[in-house]
Amino acid sequence: MAASAAALWAVNGVVSKVILASGISSLRLTQVRTTGALAGLALVLIVAAPSRLRVTRRELPFLAVFGICGLAFVQWFYFLAIHRLEIGIALLIQYLAPLGVALWARFAFHEPVRRRLWIALALSLFGLALIVDVRAGGAVSVAGVVFALAAAVAYMTYILLAEHAVGDRDAVSLLMWGFAFAALFWAVVAPWWSFPVDAVTEDVSLLGNLATHELPVWTLIGWMILLGTIVPFFLLVSALRHLPATRVALIAMLEPVLAGLVAWAWLDESLNGIQLAGAGVVLAAIALAQTAR
């Protein structure tokens, strides 16, 4: 489930790039994604299990932190970072989160962390550095680094809070309430009455090898909400019922590897030898982590 979530997010990265090419801002796209996921998950619960919508007053503060500090902030800080850094550098810094999860598990929860898992974490970070080719990153913005580190903290917060919550609440209702608070946050940051509605109805080129084909922006947004948000988030949270947060976060590192392959196939973005070697290192690290049972 964790690997499938990473694969869907990898494809969603290219889909989002096509949508952004239509002129919709990254902030507005994140707002649509969050609110759309809320609507879809709420509809599923209303039809299939309305009793799961119930929430106690005691749960609300936790769900608010999960939705805002986890689901909303991880996207917000990432977009702030990529305005100031090369996307590859920002991605590498954000994926320090699995190391943070392992450190938190070891020193805050006093959980045993096997030595080979530390080796796997080190290998995965080294592999990611090769994939994004940090040597070609250019000048590094201090503010950009701070925002990317904040995105890593938000991602770590999301994983740890989700692991804590899945014992008492099912994945769908947890995500629904999390996205509810995230959507509320975005509605305050960017009021809906100023949303560029006309941009959603326009046709946009699919770019790259599919440049001759066009689709309405709203169809791509629908794909992003369903298969780029609702399904992968559900899979990742559900995976936490079977695997500890440390290993789930590590498996999620498949995303940049698969994203590179999707970009090569769809957008004709080539991978050099160093990047292919990095992809191999990340895959080896994930395989090693799976033996640390």
Given the helix and strand composition, which structural class is it?
A: mainly alpha
Unreliable segments (pLDDT under 50, ≥5 consecutive)? Answer: none
* Average predicted local confidence, pLDDT: 83
Number of helices: 13
Strand order of the largest sheet: 1-2
Cα(first) to Cα(last) distance is 17 Å
Q: What integer value in Å does the Rg equal?
A: 19 Å
Task: Explain what the structure shows.
Helix content is about 70%, strand content about 0%. It has helices spanning about 1-20, 25-50, 60-80, 85-95, 95-105, 115-130, 140-165, 170-190, 195-200, 215-240, 245-250, 255-265, 275-290, and strands at about 205, 215. Helix 1 runs antiparallel to helix 10 (about 215-240), helix 2 (about 25-50) packs antiparallel against helix 8 and helix 3 (about 60-80) crosses helix 8 (about 170-190). The protein has a two-stranded antiparallel sheet with strand order 1-2. The model has no long low-confidence stretch (mean pLDDT about 85). It has 13 helices and 2 strands. It is globular and about 55 Å long. The longest helix has 24 residues, at about 140-165. Strand 1 (about 205) and strand 2 (about 215) form a beta hairpin. By secondary structure, it is mainly alpha-helical. It has one domain (about 1-290).
List the helices and strands and how they pair.
Elements (H helix, E strand, L loop, with lengths): L1 H19 L5 H23 L11 H23 L4 H8 L2 H11 L7 H18 L9 H24 L5 H19 L7 H5 L1 E3 L8 E3 H23 L5 H7 L2 H13 L6 H18 L3
Antiparallel strand pairs: 1-2
Helix pairs in contact: 1-10, 1-12, 2-3, 2-8, 2-10, 3-7, 3-8, 4-6, 4-7, 5-7, 5-11, 6-13
